[in-house]
Specification:
With 219 residues, this protein is of the alpha+beta class. It is built from 8 helices and 6 strands; from the N terminus they run H-H-H-E-E-H-H-H-E-E-H-H-E-E. The strands form 2 sheets. The protein has a 4-stranded antiparallel β-sheet, with helices on one face. The relative contact order is 0.10. This is Transcriptional regulator.
Amino acid sequence: MLATDSPDAARNNGATAERILFLLKTRGPLKTADLGAMLDITPEAARQQVQKLVDGAMIVGCLMPPVGAGRPSQKWVLTDAAQARFPNTHAQLTAQLIDSIKLIYGNEGIDKVVESMELANTREYVAACEQGRNLQEKVQVLVAIRDSAGYMASMEAEGENWLIIENHCPICVAAQQCQGFCRAELQVFQAAIGDSGQVERTEHMITGSRRCVYRVTPA
């Protein structure tokens, strides 16, 4: 057996592949060199891992426009098959329930469901974010809630503002069928931040963005 064929090597290769998928999910399109540097592996090892994912139809190359006077570069993005590895919470059941509610109670029934969920989440989020002594701490609490709920959430500073970044939407199927869920989320975020700041959505998966991003501006 070759060293590269050993069970330990196979596990390591599998872990590296999963890390590549995670990086492409959370960072967006990346070059092979970028992946190698982030994973601290050799360029050749990075190329091998990328090729395996290409062969497995997990990633596909796309030509990115040049920056300034540079040349176009190829970066890797996730395929639909790879996106499906990141779970959407009970997607099929959720879609069926929404269809059933619409059939029996009409759009008013859906609106009542969204309103009920919004009220429940508002109570939970507001109570949790009250622990924050300032805007930054409130955003940190909010991000922690969202991350634990499967949104792969993080926060970044943008001058005096804060960005709440969600790289995954576990309720994407529901949001596509009823955008009231997305509207309610924005209102819940604003209630959680309260008078400390203003929340606006700047990127939205439903409209074709890779992720959802919310800008929190200090009051």
